[in-house]
Each structure stands twice: as C-alpha cells, then as structure tokens.
Amino acid sequence: MAGKRRHILDLDDFSAEEITGVFSVAEAMREVMGRPVKKTPALRGKVVATLFYEPSTRTKVSFDLAAKMLSAEVLSLQPQTTSVAKGESLIDTAHTLEALGVDILILRHASSGAPYLAAQNTSLNIINAGDGWHAHPTQALLDLYTIWRHKGSLEGLKVTIVGDIKHSRVARSNIWGLTTMGAKVTLCCPYTLLPANLGNTGSLFPEVSLKPDIYSALEGADVVMTLRLQRERQAYGDLPSIREYTNLYQINDERLKLAKKDVVLLHPGPVNEDIELASACVYGPNSLIKEQVTNGVAVRMALLYLLSQGWHK
User: Fold this and answer.
1) Is the pTM of this model over 0.85?
2) Cα(171)–Cα(179) distance, integer angstroms
3) Domains (ranges, CATH) in the chain?
C-alpha cells in the first residue's frame, strides 16, 4: 500500500487490511499486558501528549496506560491549567507542543473537525480521541477488535446499533469500520435521533439498514451495540421523555432473546443503567462491556506503536 499514515482521524479512509493489521498488533499488545512487568521499550524516546477538552475516563486513562506501557514519555494536559484558559487557540497550543518536542498528540475536542485542523497545521501525529458528534475512531477499532476476538471475523455479521445515533461519534466511526469489514449494520432508534444525512443510507452505506422497531432490529442479530442516551437531548425536543425511550428501546433479557443465542452485547460507556440497558444485561453472560475497556488499552498501544514506526497504508 502506498503512502504513510500520519494520523488517526476517523475510519473512513481505513482499508480492511489496515484494520486487520491493527488487530494483529493488538494481540501482541495483550500479551505485553499479561506480563508481570507490563512494559515494552517500543516507544522509548518518544513523547506522547494527551489534550482533552472534554471529560473522559476510559479513553483518557487507556491512552495514558498504553503510552506508558510502551515506555513513552507522557504529558497529560488539562486545558483549564494551560494557556487555553487564557484564550490560546488550538493551533497555537499544538505549535507549542510541537516546539517542545512532542511526537504524538491525542486530542479530544467538543468541536467536530478540531483534530483535522491540528493535523493540517502541525507536523505532530494526531490521534482523534473524539471530536464533537463527528468521530471516535479508537473506540470503534476497539469495538471491532472485541467482536473479532469473539466471532473470528466480522464478515457477514448482523450488527444492530441501538440508541442516540444522531449525537454519537461512536456510531459514525463504527458504521465506517463495520461496513469496511463486511458486517451488515442495522440502526435502530426514533427518527428524531437519526442524523439527517443517514435518512437514506443506501447510497453511502449499502450494508446499512434502518429499523425503528426494536423487535425487528434485534431479530437474528450477532452483535448488539447500545449507545449512551444523552439526557440533555430532551431539551431540544428529540425525545418526549426518558420513560418513553426506555419502554420502546431499552435492551433487556427478554428482548435480547430475539437475537442469536451467542449474541454479544457492547456499549462504549458510561452506561445509564436501566435506561438504554437493563442492569441484568450490563452484567449478564452476553456482555463484553468490561472486556471492551481492557481491549481499549491493547488497541491504543497498537495504534501508538504503528504510528511511531511510520505506518504504511
């Protein structure tokens, strides 16, 4: 494959071969994580900075752990304690980090497109850790990897995504990744929680279908992925009430029986228990939610390693 991959901004430009390559490296990183001393010198001498303009637990901690396990120097920056609080722009901040010798910048930002802006204006390697409603590629890759480890392949799987598609960067990146890997994706949510540009998915994503009826959407599913319902969306009139959403779209044991017996259940977290997911499902035998968190470290280790080695695509 020609060219080098300098950034990880979304999965829309990833090939199936690249994604499979991430899985292979992540498997090696899981082996590192299982050692008594969880350390490898792969990124020794490299400087990795995390800059999160929005709160995060899973993504932030897993990136910090991933970089440290690879022996990188890690700078964990909080915008409120940097010159951002004085009005410094994102580009100025990126230029400062570049001048200080940072190699890889892991960026989460409330504005869609912010990581692209940083990538276009600095020589840093940029990893998008979530930008607005747009994309969350590393979450999608760890989701794909988790499914792959349990199913052996994503080709031909029916993956049902249930929840607030409209405001979910996780859903968007997963749609790109899942369809690239040959999965058939079903989106299930009220039409008010569906992005306008996904109203007719046939032209852009021929393997994506829309089924607002939860029972039809779950029937025969190999994978069910639920999304966090953002309670604040009620203020915009997208939902009449949380109670109505729960009645119509919550995944519970009874509804999960419509899927295949070996269905696996995913959620990017944090879970609003007994709203999008019944508590029994969160901790039930089909749930891979805890494993997703563990796999997030392995996948992010793989991505940091590949970028540091001059990743060819």
Assistant:
1) yes
2) 12
3) 16-136+294-308 (3.40.50.1370), 139-292 (3.40.50.1370)
